[in-house]
Every structure is written in structure tokens, then in C-alpha cells.
Amino acid sequence: xxxxxxxxxxxxxxxxxxxxxxxxxxxxxxxxxxxxxxxxxxxxxxxxxxxxxxxxxxxxxxxxxxxxxxxxxxxxxxxxxxxxxxxxxxxxxxxxxxxxxxxxxxxxxxxxxxxxxxxxxxxxxxxxxxxxxxxxxxxxxxxxxxxxxxxxxxxxxxxxxxxxxxxxxxxxxxxxxxxxxxxxxxxxxxxxxxxxxxxxxxxxxxxxxxxxxxxxxxxxxxxxxxxxxxxxxxxxxxxxxxxxxxxxxxxxxxxxxxxxxxxxxxxxxxxxxxxxxxxxxxxxxxxxxxxxxxxxxxxxxxxxxxxxxxxxxxxxxxxxxxxxxxxxxxxxxxxxxxxxxxxxxxxxxxxxxxxxxxxxxxxxxxxxxxxxxxxxxxxxxxxxxxxxxxxxxxxxxxxxxxxxxxxxxxxxxxxxxxxxxxxxxxxxxxxxxxxxxxxxxxxxxxxxxxxxxxxxxxxxxxxxxxxxxxxxxxxxxxxxxxxxxxxxxxxxxxxxxxxxxxxxxxxxxxxxxxxxxxxxxxxxxxxxxxxxxxxxxxxxxxxxxxxxxxxxxxxxxxxxxxxxxxxxxxxxxxxxxxxxxxxxxxxxxxxxxxxxxxxxxxxxxxxxxxxxxxxxxxxxxxxxxxxxxxxxxxxxxxxxxxxxxxxxxxxxxxxxxxxxxxxxxxxxxxxxxxxxxxxxxxxxxxxxxxxxxxxxxxxxxxxxxxxxxxxxxxxxxxxxxxxxxxxxxxxxxxxxxxxxxxxxxxxxxxxxxxxxxxxxxxxxxxxxxxxxxxxxxxxxxxxxxxxxxxxxxxxxxxxxxxxxxxxxxxxxxxxxxxx
Length: 819
Fold this sequence. Notes:
Layout: E1 3-7, E2 11-16, H1 29-43, E3 48-50, H2 57-61, H3 63-76, E4 79-86, E5 98-105, H4 108-116, H5 127-135, H6 147-169, E6 176-181, H7 187-202, E7 207-209, H8 226-240, H9 249-254, H10 256-259, H11 268-287, E8 295-301, H12 307-322, E9 337-341, H13 344-356, E10 367-368, H14 370-376, E11 378-380, E12 385-390, E13 396-402, H15 419-425, E14 427-433, H16 448-454, E15 471-472, E16 476-482, E17 493-506, H17 516-526, E18 550-557, E19 560-566, E20 570-574, H18 577-597, H19 605-610, E21 625-629, E22 643-648, E23 663-664, E24 668-669, E25 672-673, E26 681-685, H20 699-703, E27 716-717, H21 719-722, E28 727-734, E29 738-741, E30 746-749, H22 757-760, H23 768-787, E31 790-798, H24 801-810, E32 816-817
Parallel strand pairs: 5-7, 8-14, 8-17, 9-10, 9-13, 13-14, 20-31, 20-32, 21-27, 21-28, 28-31
Antiparallel strand pairs: 1-19, 2-3, 2-6, 4-5, 4-6, 11-12, 15-17, 16-17, 18-19, 22-23, 22-26, 24-25, 29-30
């Protein structure tokens, strides 16, 4: 492992905001504040958060010399700053007791005065910029940043300044700020750090963050230092926080609000998609004249390509542009931009995010489930709804749909035959995140023809060569029939509509940290491409070795940043389930030890004082190493009990390193697996099972993600538990529902060996042949989810002897784990 070290000069000072017009003040506001700022730096040792040695007598004697070097950094170099004070808002203080503003500037004194003296004479204020923009609206019609978006941004900044000014002038609250500087800071880096800190603040329940999205940057010199510097800065703030404003980063990362934040930095492919879609939405709305102009835009991409982050960013950008009208009604019926989510828990998260980011004034105003959106815009019948007519005035301009593949496709709700059709009928533009690979259960089945059109890779325009550009697809025809016995004597009404469809496909993989050869191999397995493990003659093909070099940047101590080269993405084939489980557990322990060595586990002064936090180390959890399995073992949903059980074939003898062990699932008898004395038995509880004696099902445990809870290390996870989450290293037990045919070079999926009721049960509206094919596809897609959870590695064992043999032969000595 190659390691390089570089010295950093991280400086954080805490200085008060003061009222420059206090009775004992004289001179200009800027001069008054400059005196306060410099006096704090010169005479108050506690103002220096870092370096910690400021409290040493030796350092105090040399404070004047240090100040001469550092004060120019704070006054005239790019810095990041955080302002905080108690929330005095009657409506919000009980929920969010603290107000915070995050900014960046090259002139901290002048910027502070702008905050403190909003609208005062001779003090520059960004409200003037708002007037300039309004006067030049026509001239800026072709600007990259939409005029309404810019107005909203400047208006929100002006309101933030007013809140800070009022707090400074109040006798009831103290206003303070942290000013942060490091010698690597440049304009791009400070803008990125500002945006990251805003992202954090927006994700903390007890904080009202006064400013919105900053200006995220692309690649630049020192960009690789951003996350390490933010983590070190944040850990210092946690250490010195006596007001419970700054929770450890780990808590932020695990919060649902952070996971759906629209402030995450986008990759190049996501940025292009964002620009293309927002520009297309503007064009379509400008040209929209009738329902014939309604357009469907699909966002597709495999797991880990950042679809959800793109969706939340699109929601933020479009809502900021179209929904923020102070004079508009607050009822959900008259909003222009909507986000629809079928999963109720996820819907609540988006609803909270929209409220906290100022995208709506009350819960449910622009975030809801699809059924509610449709019903609110439909005519009320004596019983139920009349879906043939709806309020045209309530047609939404833009509707975004998360996981549109989960929309109802049959009459599971009174009168609705296809939710996508109903949403399109009530909208001008629909942006739908759609992933056919996530259709993994009977209730999610789509009509094959509709699915073919939605998932089609074909284009009408063959001159489009860039896959991440908007593509024109075949028009989509949707037909629905409606009947209600209270309307027209129960007569059936047939409605058919035709919609133009565009699609954008995301390919850039954000989850799996591996090179293209490895990614292609995983894709080929997941997509069941022929001859991935063996060639046409049955000879084994090699599992690729990842050749991509990975680097981690972190702080080794207070002032040293370290860049370490880590081992590439690992694929290991294990001789037995026991070897696999032990290897994943050992991997987790190793990562924890490495974390401690890198000083991530430093004790917290705050923790010593309050006992609330055990660590000020603000790092991502390195214990994300878990074993997963296909749903081929019984689980009692009602009683929450079940185990993954395998027994070793007694007749099998391992005679060489080339051999593989044979394990099988014992007979299921009277609600349990029948095993015999003397057998080699592998048995681990299913995820969140009461059979796990280590897992106390407390309220707090239930809220914590399965993938990161310490109490779940001894469990086996299913696709239900791990879907949507990342692991550092994933071990996958491939059960008997997946076999291998060496002659065809393909995996064989056997739904009859599955214990997933969403796969094994039948539907009456699908013919037998199509139903069996659908079940096999569900098994394949569930396996795909399991194989692509690990960020840094994948460990495998297959129960089916043919598949295990093919995997073992495809692995070389370095990729085999025998013990």
C-alpha cells in the first residue's frame, strides 16, 4: 500500500457577531467590526479552535508572531464560515431551536458587515442585485441560470441577512461564527466545502439552515481534499459544541434526510442529465397548448448510478423555479411541481426534505403518493371517484415520480387501471425514474408491451450517439377502461392516449469502486449473459482482477493529510458458507482496526462532559461488511423468526485445494429444518430475526439501518433488507434457486426453490408461460441486487454444486478462499 503525507494548516476561529451601533461604538460599522474581530484573535485564546496547542503557555507566548502570519489568511484569503444563533421564530423554534447560515468569502470582515447591517446605508447588500436582475429580465432571457431561480436565490439570501441582523440587534440571543481557513483553499474548494456544510446543516433536525444550495464545482486542483477537510472541520465543531448543534457525521450520514438531499455533488453524467432535463422542461412548458403536448421523460440506470440523487436535485431545481410564489395558494391542488412516491416511508422522507428546504410551506403540499394526486384532481362520485373527468385548472406543470416501476398497473384501486396513464392525463410534463431491474415481485408485474416501450433502448433518431443525452423513443399508447355503477349506470368508458417519450440513461457507477473489466463481469452475471463462467466448450473463464488503483484521503493527525493507495476491488470464491461468513466478519474487524489507526476514534471532550457521544470522530462507518443470501430459506413474517441453514454432505471428502465442498438445505419439517447429530451445520438468523440472540429488538435498533447496526453482524440479509443500501464488502450465499448449465454457459433460475411468496404465488391475469418466465426474471433481478451491494468487494459461495464448481474453477489461487 503506497502512502503519501502532506502537512495541512487547518485554522478555525470562533468570533462573536456584535452590534456595530451599540452605545459605546464609534466610527463606521465596518471599522467597528474589524476591531472586534482582530481583538478576539489577539486576546482571546479560546477563540482558536485549531490548532489545539493555542492553550499551551509556550504557544501563547508566540501568539503575536503566529497572528501576524495567520490574520491575513482570515481577512483576505478564501474562507468558509458558519453563523449560528438561537431560533426565536414562534412557528419553528420548538422544532428547530437553532438557526445556522453557512457561507464562503474572500473578505470575511466585509461579508460579516453585510449580514449584520442589512439595508443600512453605504453597506453593500445582495438585495441590490435582485433589483438589477428584475430590471434586466428581458436581457437575461437566454441566461444559463433561470431568472426565477436567480430571483429566488437572491431573495432567500436577503431574508437570511435580515434574520441575522435582527438576531444581532436583539438583546435576547448571542450570535457567533466560526471562520475556517486552510492553505489549500481556493475559490472552487471553498464553494464546495460551503455546499457540503449546507448539505449537513439541512439534514439536522434541530437546525433551521437559512441558506439554500450553493454553487457545486466540477473537478479542480485540491478537489480530492474536500471530504477529508470537511470531516476534520466537523469533528472539531463536534468537539467544541456545547449546544448540541453539531451531531457526529455518522449520525448525519445515516439520516434519511441526508440520503435524499438535493445538495449532493453530482457526477459529470448527472450534471449533464440535470441540465438537459431542466432545459427540456422549460421548452415543453413554453410550447404546451393542449393535452396532446404532454410529454413523458424517463430516467433510467442500473443500481448505483445516482438516479435518486438526480431526482431530488431535479425536484429542488424545478420547485425553486416554478413553485416559489409567495402569493400562490398553499393547497396541494394548485402546485406546479409535484413529487410522487409510492413507498409510504420514502414519501415521508421526501415530504420532510421539501419542507426543510423551503420547497413547500406545509406537509403534503407538493409531495404525495400517486393515488392521492390522482384522486384530488378527479370528480367525486357517489361512491369513489369518476376518473373520466378531472379539474383541468389543477393540471400540474411538472410531476416527478420516484420508482415509477412500482406504480399500479391493474385495477387494485377502485376504477384505476394504470396509474401512469392517470398521472400523465393530469400533467404537462412527467419525469419518471424507471428501473425494470427493480421489478422483483408478482405485484409489480407490468404489461410486457408497455414495459418493452418504457425499457426500450431503441431510438427514432439514429444521429444521437451519446447514451447520456435525451433520446426520442417510440410514442407510448396507453388504454384504460373505467366503470362505476353510480355513473352512467355502470357503463364502461374507454380512454386511449398517445404520448411522446424521451429517455435519458445513466451509466456512471457510483456504488462499485472497480474498473471496467470487473464491472462488466458483474453485469454479465447479473444479466445472465452466456459463457461468463465457461466458454462454449465448457472450459472455465477467469474472473477478472481489478486493476484500478483506489486512493483514500484522510487526516492522520491534527495537521497531516494522508493519501493511501488501497487494494483494488476484490472478488473471492469461498470453499464453504462458514469460510465466507468468517471472511466477511474478519474483513469488518480489519476495517475497524484501520479506522482506529487513522485516528478516527479519538475521544471527544463533549462525550466526556455529557456522555451523549462516544466519539468525535466524524467518519463513514467502516463496519459495513455483511453476508447476504437469496430468499431460499423460510422466514415466518408473523413471528419474525427464521434461519439460513445448510448442512455439509457427509460423503464428500476434500482431497485437494481444487476441490469444493457440497452443502445443501436440510428438509423443512413441521416449521423447522431437520438436522442430525454429528452433521456439520451452518446456521445463521435471517435479518432482524428473533432467532438472533444478539439482537435485542429495541425501538432504537428497529430504526437503525440493518447494514450498519452492530447487533446484525451475526445475521444474513435478504434483498428486502439491503435494497437501497451500500456495503463495504458483501458476502453472498447463492441458494438453490440459482443453478448453472455448463452447456449453455447460462445461469438457471428455479423459482420452485425460492421461499419468497412474492415470487412463488400466482396471478390470475397472466398466462402460465409468461408467469413462469416472470418468476425466473424475479430471481435473476433479486440476485442482481445482492451482487451489487459491495463497494469494495464481493465474496461468493453457491449451494448448487454446478454453480459453485464453475465459480471455483473461474477463480485463480488469489481469488479462492479455502479457510
